[in-house]
Amino acid sequence: MLVGPVGSDSFNPYFSASALGPVEEPLQAPVPSLAEPATETIELPVVEPAVIEGNEEQVEQENLPGVLRLLIDGHFRGVADIRLRIVFHDELEALQTEAARAASAEAAGALIEAVGVRLDELASSGALSEEQAIAVGELQQAFEQAVDEAVEQSNTAPGVDEEALTNGLQSAFDGLTDPLETLLAPSAPTEPADLPSEPVVAEPADLPSEPVVAEPAVGPSVLDALKDAFDAGMVQVNEALVASSILSPPSLPRGNGVAYEKFLSIYEELTGPAEPTDDTQDQAEEIVGIMDAVA
Q1: Short-list 280, 293, 284, 247, CA closest to 82
Q2: What DSSP assignment string belongs to 56-86?
Q3: Cα Dmax for the chain
Q4: 173 versus 61: which is more confidently predicted?
Q5: Cα(first)–Cα(last) distance of the chain, in Å?
Q6: Which of 24, 156, 194, 253 is 20 to 30 A from residue 56's alpha carbon, by CA?
Q7: Are 84 and 107 a contacting pair, CB within 8 Å?
Q8: What are the residue boundaries of the structural domains of the chain, listed by start?
Q9: How far is residue 221's CA from residue 74's CA, in Å, rounded to a whole number?
Q10: What is the pLDDT of residues 222-248, one digit of tens each?
Q11: CA–CA gap between residue 229 and residue 227 (Å, rounded)
Q12: Which residues contact 143 (CB under 8 A, 6 or more apart)?
């Protein structure tokens, strides 16, 4: 390397570039490898599906086939209504059985609780002896077991045998109140002691100033309260079974009475007599393609 122009004082033909020292390499920006591109992993938060409390029935219905769900919601009328009930008979029967048995079990549990409240009031009243309190507790346990058995026995047929359930619950209550009435009945009067040979005249001071009135037995009032609780519970049982129905009664025909009667006859062979009703709910269109697909 020459410093200065030729002919100038600073020009030195013997000047060596090594005298300037090592030459530093220019800085270069790092080049990312194409084989392993630099990526940043971003972890997204896991969002759980929102479940609205008390909306379990709606969640279950969302899993049903579309046509079946529309049928349960009452969107079909006339021949379409009856025909779909026949097509989905097995599915509807299974759903109805599940709903009715759940309703009867829940209502029977409420009945046990209502009667138990009255028995607890009796036990805490202080009117029972220790032996009577133990006997009442045993009767209460037997009643609860009899109610559970009545619910289970009513589930033998498809759905719930309402007559068997009613008779079983009444039998369970009779098995509680009959022995309870005997238990709480006032004790029989004791036989008078042998009279002395000579009459004993009581002194005037020994006579009570007012007549002694025997305390009334607790039996009638307790039994009446138990009966009221049981009757109210039976009303709730019947209402629960009615409310558990997943289908309204069949709708009335819409013009094609011959076809309607034909399918209604088939439907009644599967489920028993049905009384059609004129529902005022908005009527959805009867789509022929859907009907042919599910037939």
Answers
A1: 247
A2: HHHHHHTTS-HHHHHHHTT---HHHHHHHHH
A3: 176
A4: 173
A5: 100
A6: 156
A7: no
A8: 65-184+218-270
A9: 48
A10: 899 999 999 999 999 999 999 999 998
A11: 5
A12: 112, 115, 172, 173, 175, 176
Quote the tokens at residue 36: 């392993």
Residue-level pLDDT at 295: 45
What whole-number distance in Å separates Cα of residue 211 and Cα of residue 214?
10
Closest CA to 225 of 117, 124, 113, 147: 117
Whole-number pLDDT of residue 70: 92
Indicate the pTM of the whole model.
Answer: 0.61
* Cα–Cα distance, 225 to 223 (Å, whole number): 5
Which residue, among 65, 55, 60, 57, has the nearest Cα to 90 in the 3D structure?
A: 65
Cβ–Cβ < 8 Å for 241, 100:
yes
Maximum mean pLDDT: which of 6-15, 68-77, 285-294: 68-77
Give dist(CA 145, CA 176) in Å, integer. Answer: 11
Strands of 135-249, DSSP E: none
b (16+ CB within 10 A) / e for 122-150: bbeeeebeeebeebbeebbeebbebbbeb
Block residue for tokens 């220790």: 130
Burial class of residue 92, CB neighbours in 10 A (0-12, 13-18, 19+): buried
Is residue 252 classed exposed, middle or buried when 0-12, 13-18 and 19+ CB atoms within 10 A define those classes? middle
Residue environment code for 182-210, b if the CB has 16+ CB neighbours within 10 A, otherwise e: eebeeeeeeeeeeeeeeeeeeeeeeeeee
* Conformational region of residue 78, where left means phi above 0, alpha means psi within -120 to 50, and beta covers everything else: left
Average pLDDT rounded to a whole number, residues 127-148: 94
